[in-house]
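Backbones bend. To wit:
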Amino acid sequence: MKKTVISIIGITLMLFAFTACQPRYIFMPHVHAFGEWTIIKDATCTEEGVKTRTCRLCSETETQTIEALGHELDADGKCTRCNKQVEQYINSGEAFLEATKKEGEIILTGDITIDIAPWETNDKSVFGSEETESIVIDGKGNTITFNNTDSDWNAIYTKNEDAVLTIKNATIDNSGYNANGGTWNGHDIIFSCNVVLENVTATNAIVVGKNATIKNSTISDVNCTGDAYMLWIQANGQTVTVEDCKINGKSSTTGADNRAIKIADQYVDDPKAVTLNVSGTTFSSDTKAAVLVTCTAGATINWGEGNDISGVTADTEHAVWNDSDRTDAMDLVVVNGCTKIQEV
């Protein structure tokens, strides 16, 4: 009898020790006993931090983000935490453009409209100064409306051609001349500058003429009265990165045929091959492929993980088409991670 009792106790102890990282023992689930949080990365005014904690019983870790602190401004608009000068403007487009000439971040406290002049007289649409290298606009969920004035070709420039314009946490829209004309002769929002769009909802089609990074954003133009490409990339030899986005090339207008991305040498005097990097992005369209290349210089498309073309009406298999008018450039269209076909 004693031997039996000893054996049962021994087996129970073994089971307890053996299952400490899963169930503590057969009849009771393991409940984590986490220790204190350890800061891995401190949160800053503009960036999230990271913290972890570890279970004392099984060493499993839990990780959480720490919300960005946000700027804490003094009466002069200077952050008491990071010492960055932060400008706040809401109604005056002229004051807004003037603010971009200074180093620092611009935070919107309301919606704003900015006049965008024709390309021949682009003084109204120039951001920054010759010395400004970085222009950061945090929309804080507000809307930036680019108002087209008197021309199909209304573009956004930076005074310093090498500067980077960053717009984040905002809705961007356009108004004025041919606002719903689409990206053909009547372009919607044209960035003729290096641009970063992050956490942006674009309610009109976009054109990029230089380096561009678009992250966690949505581009659509459902009310366009004509055919439109949601993202038109001018073939100027730049690199364009699209990451974790939704390119909604569907129109609510009867008879309109909206599309997703186009790499085009139209209106470009000296076409150069563009590099397009795409990952984690969902595409839809009324017609054409997810990416159409119509460029005598070709293009390189690096198709990363997580892309979804099931909503592309014309082709749910091949991500890239070479335009029917550019059959001589088919071999210059290089794809990695996806397939291409020649449009007929």
